[in-house]
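User: Sorry, what's this?
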Amino acid sequence: MSKILVIEDEAAIRRVLLKILSEENDTYQLDEAGDGAEGLEKIKDNDYDLVLCDIKMPKKDGVEVLEEAKKIKPETAFVMISGHGDIDTAVNAMRLGAFDFISKPPDLNRLLNTVRIALDTKTLVTENKRLRKKVSKNYQIIGDSEGISKIKEIIEKVAPTDARVLITGSNGTGKELVAHQLHEQSSRSKSPMIEVNCAAIPAELIESELFGHVKGAFTSAVKDRAGKFEAANNGTIFLDEIGDMSLAAQAKVLRALQENKISRVGSDKDIKVNVRVVAATNKNLRKEIEEGRFREDLYHRLAVILIEVPSLNDRRDDVPLLINHFTKKIAEEQGAPVKVFSEEAVELLKGFDWTGNIRELRNVIERLIILGGNEISAGDVELFSGKS
C-alpha cells in the first residue's frame, strides 16, 4: 500500500490531485499539506513512498523542501509540480534528485503515468536494496577475535578507496569474504564484482577468460567475446588464487594495472577499463618470486594493502560464534528447527585441529546437525565429527 503526500498551497489544485489519485487507486494512503514548511514536517514524521510537491509556495518553496527532505529521507520519490514559468527550476529540481515534474494544470494521463512509474521505480529500488543486503549477509565476517577485529578495521579504512588489496591465508580461512566486504563497502558496490578462480582455469585459456578474444583468435573462437576485466568495468575484479596464474597472463595483468587498458586475445585494439583489483592467494608469493614463478613487479602492484586472514587454529575464541552462525544458516537452508550445542560440545570443537579452517568447521557442523540429537552433545561430537 503506497503512501503519497501532496504539498500544494492552492487548495483547489490540491483537492483535484487528491481526487484523481483516490479514483485511480483506492489503496493509496493520501495525505496533504498546504505549504512547504507543513509538508517538510510531515515528511520528517512519516515514511512516504511519493511526494507530489508544488514549486512556488509560501514559507518554503518546493526546491527547499526537496533538498531538505533528501537529506533525511533520501529514498522518498519526489514529483515536482511546476507552472509554465518554473520549467528551469523544475529541471534544476531533477538534478537535485526529483524523479520528474509535471506542469500546471496537470494533464490527467501524464500525472497518473508519472505516479505509477515513480512508485514502481521506488519499489524496484527498495527490492534491489533488500536483495543486496541479503547478498551482503551471505558474506559476513563472523568473529570478534583480535585478528578478525583488525581485519574489519582495515576493511573499513581501505574499502572506500581504490587501493589494490592482496589477501593471503590458508585455504578455507575466508579470503573471499574479505574481498566481498571490500567491494560491498566501496563506492563501486552498485557495479559488479567479478570473481575469477585463477587455479581452476587452464593456463592456455586464462588470458581469454580475463581479457576476452576476437573471432578467429584461436580454433574455438567462433565470435568476439568480452573478458572478465570488461565485465567488471567500474566495479571490482577478484583474482582468487592469483599465485597459480601463468607468467604470460601475469604480464598482461600488470599492463592492465599500469595503463588501465586491456586488449583482447588476437586484437591490437586497446580497451580502457576502470576496475579495482583485489587478489588472493594461499601461496607465499615472496617464495614464488624467488623461484621465478611470480613477477615481483606485479606483486608490488597488487600488494598496496596486505591483509592476512588467520587460520581457525589462531582464532579459536571465534568458534562458538561460528557454530551459532552456521547452525542458524543451515537450519534456514534446510527448513528445520535450530539445534543447540551443549557447552561441552562447543569446548570439544574449540580444541580440535582445524586444518581445513572455516570450511571444515562448517562441514562438521552440518554433519552434526543431520546426525546428532535435538541438542548436540559432546558424545555426538565424538561420534560424528570425524575429528579426534
Observations:
- The chain has a mean pLDDT of 90.
- The first helix runs from residue 11 to 24.
- The chain has three domains: 3-135, 146-310, 313-384.
- The first strand starts at residue 3 and ends at 7.
